[in-house]
Amino acid sequence: MVTEQNLITSENEVEDPGLGLWQQIKEDWIAHGRDWTKPGFRAVAVQRFGVWRMKVEPKLLRAPLSILYRSLYRKVRNTYGIDLPYTVKLGRRVVIEHQNAIIYEYCTIGDDCIIRQGVTLGNRYLDKPLESPQLGDRVNVGAGAKILREVNLGDDVNIGANAVVLSDIPAGQTAVGIPAQILQSTKNQENA
């Protein structure tokens, strides 16, 4: 029997029981407009499968699933140009709107994010392989945007098309340009 006491892991932290593979895929399917033919949905579904298969024990049972995953991953990458490895920490209901997105293997993407075509979430230096973007929840990344190195984007951030983000963006802000700068709203300018 699960009690409230069992779910509390530390002072204010509640353990997330998580969704199963099919529940996640169904949620992603709904987020992608209930269209299983969309390249973004296919990429996310393959990524979810890749994460799930790593939980299969013993490794002997995992081996054929790993072969299947690698085949599907390469098919999505080579056909649609969406590079989304299983090592990415992918939130719930993430939408990849169109083809051609490169997401570095150590990125974190929060819940309800939208990634558009031509986006790169990547590493900037070869000698620092673990430095990668960390996106909060509900981040909206415009077409062609590049988010490079270990930057943190807060919740509800909007990144303009073709922006190059090289520094942290606080929650609720919009960043545009090369390099990306926070766009000041007219309301903020009038009060200054």
Alpha-carbon Rg, integer: 18 Å
Question: For the report, how would you describe the main beta sheet?
Answer: 6 strands, mixed
Q: Number of helix segments? A: 5
Question: How do the strands of the widest beta sheet line up side by side?
Answer: 3-6-9-12-14-15
Q: What is the overall pLDDT average? A: 89
C-alpha termini separation? 57 Å
Uncertain spans, ≥5 residues at pLDDT below 50? 1-16
Number of strands: 15
* Overall morphology: globular
Assembly form of the protein: single chain
Assess the beta-strand content as a share of residues. Answer: 15-25%
Helix-strand category: alpha/beta
- Summarize the helix and strand pattern as letters: HHHHEEEEEEEEEEEEEEEH
Helix content: 25-40%
Structural write-up:
It is a single chain. This protein has 192 residues and is an alpha/beta fold. The protein is 30% helix and 18% strand. The protein has helices at 4-7, 21-31, 39-53, 59-80, 186-191, and strands at 82-83, 89-90, 95-96, 101-103, 108-109, 114-115, 119-122, 134-135, 140-141, 146-148, 152-153, 158-159, 164-165, 174-176, 181-182. It has a six-stranded mixed sheet. The chain has a five-stranded parallel sheet with strand order 1-4-7-10-13. A hairpin with a 4-residue loop joins strand 14 and strand 15. Helix 2 (21-31) packs antiparallel against helix 3 and helix 3 (39-53) runs antiparallel to helix 4 (59-80). The N and C termini lie far apart (57 Å). Residues 1-16 have low confidence and may be disordered.
